[in-house]
Every structure is written in C-alpha cells, then in structure tokens.
C-alpha cells in the first residue's frame, strides 16, 4: 500500500493557489475590460495625454517596491495595473511619435493573449504544433514577398531586430569560417596555417543600426573589424567606397565576408542600394544581409516607387524584418529570413541536445504501429493527402518543424501567432493600406513643414520618418542663423551647414513637449559626408516617425501647433 | 496656404483600418472570453486532452497557409484562434508534463495583456517609465533573495534562460579580456604580445544546459575551449576535477575565466555545489555564473534543505533565474542578476547610440526651468522626497533607468510587468506554496513509483523532476532485464547498469501516451560517471517535471495508471 501524506497537497487559500484560474480570469476580465477599452479609446481619440511623465523617484512611491509577503489579490493588482496604464506612454494616441513603433491593434492584443493563454513555446514541434507550422509557413510567405523562392527559403522569429541581425552575422560567420564554432578565433600559429586563416571583415554604412557593431563585438570578431562605409550625401551607402574597401581588405590579406545593407536607416529612413550591393557581394563572394527592421514593412506598399527602395532583396542571403514596427504587430515580432532556407542555419548553430530534440514526431508516428486504430478516434480531421501538399511537405525534413534547433536559444515565444492573426484579419490589402497611409502622412507632413514659415525640412522623407528644424520667431535675429534664414523650403540636399544653435531649439522644445505629454517626440543628430568626403555633424533635428495608421490632417497640424506653442513658451 | 490632398487619409473600411480598436477589442473580448475561460477550466479539470496531436501536414490543412488578400475580419480570426487552442497542448492541464514549464496563471495572462496593451518597450525610460522602474527594483529584490547586497546588485530580463547565460558569458569575457570588444580574438602575433593574450577557457559540468556550449560557440570562444567537468555519481559537478582542470589550463598558459554552476540540471534537477565552486573561483580569480534557470525558483521555498541547494549564490558573480518555469509567469521572463550591479555590464556592452540613448530625463528635467509652474498641473501626485528615498535614488545614475544600453539589443519586452503583478498577487508566501507544493508532488510521486511493482525509480528527486523506468509485465522474462529485476526500489545511486531495452519501453510508451494526449510526458538519457571515472550512458528513462502547483494524489496515480495501460497496449 502506498503511504502518502495527502495533507501535503492542501494549500492555504490565503496564498491564492487553487486551480480556479478560469474564475479569476473571468473576474479580472470583467473588472478590467472596460478599463482597457477606455484606455484604447481615449488614446486613439487623443483624449488622454500621451504620457504623464513621472520621474523615477515619483514612480517608486507609486509602485511600492517591497514585494508583499501575503498576496494582495485582485484588488491589489488592479490598482497596480491602473498605475501602469496611467504612467506609461499611451501608444494608441497618434501623438506617440517618440519611437519607431506605435500601438499594436486590437488584433495584436488578442494575438498575444492567445499565445499567452496557451503559454506557447515554439522550440519543439510537440510543444507548439500550430505555432511551429505557422512560423515555418509564414516565414516562407514573407521570404517570397521579398523575392525569395518560396519552396527554398525559410526563416524564424528572433526576440527583436538586433537579435535577428546578430543571428544573421553568426550564421554568415560560421558559414565562411567553418572552424569558428569549434575553435573560436583565438587560434595558435599552427591552427592559423591549418585553417588558412584570414582576418574576417564586415561592412556597413555609417548610418546603420548600432546592433551591427554590437554583434561584431559579441561574436568575438571585434568592433574594429567592422568597416564603416561612407554614405552619399543622401545617407545611402556609397557603393564605390564599399568596393574600394573590399579590395583594400583583400589586398591586406583579410577576408571580407559580410555586408549589411540598411533598408530604412534609423534617422533618415534611407535605403542602401540593395541591388548594387548584391552585385558587389556576388563578385567577391560575400554574405549580403539586409537589415530591413524598419523598412521591410514597405514591401506591402502598392506604390512602385516605394517597392523600388527594396529592389534587390531577392539577391540577399538574409533579411531582418520587424512586423512590430510599421505593421503594428505587438512588440516583439522580428523575422529573420534566409534565402537558402534553414538547413544551413541548423548546420551552423545546432547543438546536440538530445534531452530536448529527440525526434518526437517520428516517435509518435512510429507508435502508430502499436495501435493503428487509435488514429481514427483521435483525429476527426478529414485529412486527405493531395499531391500539392505532398510537394509542400517534401520541402521539409522531419526536424524542420523543431525550430529551436535553428536558434541559439531554447524556449522561445511563438511570436508568429500574432503576425498570422494580424495578416488574416487585415489581409495583404489591409497591410498595404496601413503602410501607404503612413507614407502619405509623412509626405503630407513634409509638405506642411515646407509651407510653415518657422520650419525647415531637413530632407524630403524617404519612408515614414520626417526630419526637420524649427526656428523660434524671437530668435530669428540670432546672427548664427544667418546662413539658413534664406534657405528655401526645398533646399538642396548638399546643404549641410546648419548652425549648432538649432540643436538647442530642438532639444529644449522636445523636452517641454514630452513633459507636457500631449505629444511625445524625439530628436536625432547624424554625421553625413559632404561632397568633399568630409564628415559633417548635423546638429539635432526633430525626427518624427509616422507609424500610426490613423493620421489625419488635424493630427499633422496639431504637431506644428504644439511645437509653435512650446517654442513661444520657451523663447517668448 | 497649405495644399494637402486630404483624400490621402481616406481609407477603405474594407481594410479594417479605422481607429476603432476599442470597439474591436470589446467585440472580440465578448466573443472570446468564454472560449478562453472554458479552455482554462477544462484544462485545469483535465476534461480536455492535453494535446490532440496532429501532424504538420494535417495542420497545414487547418491553418490555410496562404495569407488572404482581403482581411477575414473577426469571424475569420475567431476560427483561427479556436484551431490554435484546440491543437496546441493545453498547458493548464496538470497532465502537461512534457517540458520544464506548465501553464501560466490568470494573473500571468493579465500581466502579458497589460504589457501588450501599452505595447511596452523597456529600452529607454521615457518609452516605459513604469516598466523600467519595476525592472530595476525587482532585479534588486531578486538579487537580495539570492544573497546579494540589494544596494549594490542589479539585473535585467533577457529573452529566455539561454540568452541570460549567453549575456553572462559575454560580460565575463569582456571583463577578463578587455581587448575583446574592440579587437575580437583573431589577434596578430604582435597584438597577442601587446594584450598579454592567454587562451580563454570556461568550465561547466557535463550535465549543464546546452546554451553554455552554444554561447561559447557564439561568442567566438570556440566550443573546444569549454571544458566539461566530471560529475559525481549524483550528477553534481566534481569540484576536485574542476580544480585539476583549472590548474592544468593555467600550466598550459591558458586563462580560466568562467565557471558555470548549474542549479537544477535539465534531466536530474541536480545542483552543483555552488559554495565550494565560489571558493575555487575566488582562489583563481574566475567569474562564477549560476545557471539557476530551472532551480532558481527554489529560493522561495520554506524548506531549509531546499534552500541549502542554492547555498553560495551570494558569492557568485551572476545568476540566471527563469520565473517562467516553476513560478508560472508567462514565457518568457528570465532574469540575469549581477552581484556588482549593472555599471560593469554597461561598460562591457554599451554602444554609443545617441539617436536613442540621449538623456531624455535630464532634458525633461532641464525643461522645467522654462515653465516651472507646469509641474503642479501636470502631476497631481503628492511627491515628498524623503531621506530614505534619496538614499535609494543615489544608488542610480541617470542612465541607470535606460536598461537597453546594458543589453546587446534595442527594443525589448517589459517582461518584469508580469513577474511584478504575479508577485504582488500571490505574495512571497504564495510563491513559497507554489514551489513547495511542486516539490511535495515530486517526492510523493517518487514514493508512489517506489511502491509500484513495475516501476524503478532512477534517483530520489532533488527538485521537481522525477526520473524513472517502467518494465512491462509481459517483458519481465526478457533475460536482458535480469540485472535489474531484483533491484530494490531504493537502490544505490552507484548502480548504473541499466539495460538498453528499458529505453525501448520508455520511448514507445511515451510516444503512445503523447499520441493519446491525456498526458504529455517526455524522456531523457544522460551520461554519468561511475566510481572508476568511466562515462556510462544511461538508457532513456521517463523524466517528469512537476511544474503545476495543483497536483493532488489522483493526478499522481493517473500518471502511473496511464503508463500501465499504455504498456499493456503495446506489450500485451
């Protein structure tokens, strides 16, 4: 007879540890659903502030930093949730223009909710069959949009665009330097000879995202072995400079292996010339990665001009694409797509973790031999294998469905569920509208800037970012401003001589706007090359992204007005 | 006059692109809340299958792989959601014992919902003030639980335990090899002299998680420079072997810099002797990392014996702790804690991304000078700065609140919101009950196994994992089984002579159980050292984690019964 002390299983109800989560969920849902829906509504209608800014010391007061010994139960966390909502930026408000994302959509919220309710984990098929299938198929569909061959390409989600870029560099590194996984790069003299060692060198433009440099640092390649290629005056990579640098590196006995093309730079929203870069990369046998974290969404646009910005992606080896930016899928949902599929990715990064990646699928299928009749009763799904599907399935080996072994991690969020439900709800046409409306908003706003006397458009917008300066009326007599006072609103891109005092205006106005909280905006400075090839630091300008799909002319005018008002307050 | 074509802003309502997400959220919530709550209820009451297993080709039929041109709207995605729920494992069912996590709680679901509704991004303070403050404070509280000095320690969340381990290794690498970030490891002869290069070597036990090896690979250190330390027969690291290996490495001119202690191995749930390891690490100036992904939750236990397993964490340099495992916070919520705070982390990994990390806070504070009276109207919060709080705040420099610059990423999910709300709801006592109930379940189940004639307990459970074999009655005459038929239920740990045929039983029964879907279990094999120091491969056994806090004696008996029934079906 088994002797178990069943008292062990009696828990205090004070600890809220009974299996009644359905009731708690219902109760919380009832109490919170109106709070949530009002939050969304007041955000989208700009009734609430974008942000009621509190300083850290004020927030520490609010959130009671000491975790309680006894649980606070429902009432306790509802108060916490209200504080979180109240003192975080309301991203549903179109005035949230601080970062390169906006709110998600109701569908995005529900998608994350579903992923959380199943507590999905798409590392092995058996733990997340549906999410795994969605991720494999969706990556292929996305690859096809970018011009890859759908039957060959593949992809997966990573926890953010930086992680995707990092993973792309890792796969390229291990592909070009096959000894690296086992031996690393700290080679002895004899190992260098044996492996025919050449110094790995990577290239990116000086406008790229900082994750490229961090990835070089992380992967043991060293920041100094990332060469920053000059940009043209428009902020796109100078292909002549790139090729010269590649040739030089080869002359020095180095091995150029990776070029990062930025499709949508963080400040100007500029696109490197991907097609030209692919030709150079092909010529020198270099991995071409496209960091389309920001600009990848433009692949949904119906405008030919816009699509041309991404021309050449089909020839790249890999693409990073963040659906959590312009498409409004909840943070995080970043795709890393590979032209040649995931087989090489697995070969480069997989590890022999047989406690996890034993082939469940085969084991389960094999088990059918033991009780063949069970299959009918278990699945009522009328599955008829057609030739078309067989073709599709032949593209995958059994292990293709365990996505985790193509990553450097273990458990992973099934982010594709959110993207999938969004795509199903909005359709390709809905994504197109969303993207094109953002682009319309930014170009309309640029037009508005040009027609407003106290504003100077820095550049015509390329994607959904608008960069501009404001000059307070009371400051127009400042002699420092002379060089730009007569600048026409559609000045030549080659004009880079912006006085530093503009940065002061930008920063002080931004700070006041953000403190007031009706509009949350950000600024940036960049370094550009002038026609002589000298690097010029451009003082801080307003950099406003148009991420929300819901802008109208009133919103655009509101931005202008708010800047004018803040300007008059600070510079009366 | 501004000339804008406002038609640009008219979008087709067919594209579901109007700012009415509150209505859509309400409508979806109304249609889904009962579906969700029934799903939770039927799971927890084991009314639904854990998994209705479909093969990939069957799922492809269900999910319509071609994304639609026109959106499917609400009705479309509700059908999708029902498929996701139906054909994913129901982790709320206590019979989901396949992986090292179970369902989340209702509070976890709501926590993720809040994080998604704000579309929170805790990379810079201004984008997520509340989440940033919570993350900074909570990491300190967790560090204090593990014995760190709360006023000094710090931490942050990473996207999973592997990412946390990876980051710990990166910070250690850059700390011990300060040239690595800039130069990488592919050094020339003269650089090696200049930097006084010594080959970096890291150590971990052969029972560790595979992410340690993957991290060595990823960081350019090379898998071969990870030395696998022998374990004692109990599966914990052999400290004598470790010290010998360290000495040997030093004799060879190498630089041992990192020891990974596993606190809760993936198969046996064993703990390396952290305190002893810390003494060795101190002696040789080595970074001690504790991978407590699995076992870190035990810090909440009220049992002295259990807490002793984690003895020594206070002396470690860093700790990985996954609250998404035993504590039921939704995937993902992994903490990486640093004894000495985040300053060194920032120094080792931060990058100069001034488009993102300009000091908003100072800018905002400075702007108060322009309109000092605004402060009253903006914030109705009665903030009185006290001495106590000033002391707390003095621990942080302004940049401490921008967490992103202490990571290798950019945008990041504010995972701490989920952990915070869970802790607030359940309290420290609730977490203690949860953990101790899991431990009680596993020890009770081990007792049950020992009293069941057709089962052999492989080892007494150390944490919440139980490893055991089953012998089908009809197979007892197999001569291969002779060595173990008379094995007492509490056999000596030194017995390692398990016949291979046991693996066949384990795998076939597991496969049938998983196909039937009332119970989802997994198996594992490991390599252990016998007393002679020879490595013995232990054939696959059942490895069942007790993650759910809701087990009762019926659940435990159900597992035994299901295995017996499957066994009788396969081996009649």
TrEMBL record, chains A, B:
Keywords: Decarboxylase, Lyase, Pyridoxal phosphate
Family: Belongs to the group II decarboxylase family.
Names of required cofactors: pyridoxal 5'-phosphate
GO cellular component: cytoplasm
GO molecular function per UniProt: carboxy-lyase activity; pyridoxal phosphate binding
Superkingdom as given in the UniProt entry: Eukaryota
Cross-referenced PANTHER family: CYSTEINE SULFINIC ACID DECARBOXYLASE, GLUTAMATE DECARBOXYLASE-RELATED
Alphabetical GO biological process terms: carboxylic acid metabolic process
Residues with the N6-(pyridoxal phosphate)lysine modification: 325
Name this polypeptide is given: Acidic amino acid decarboxylase GADL1
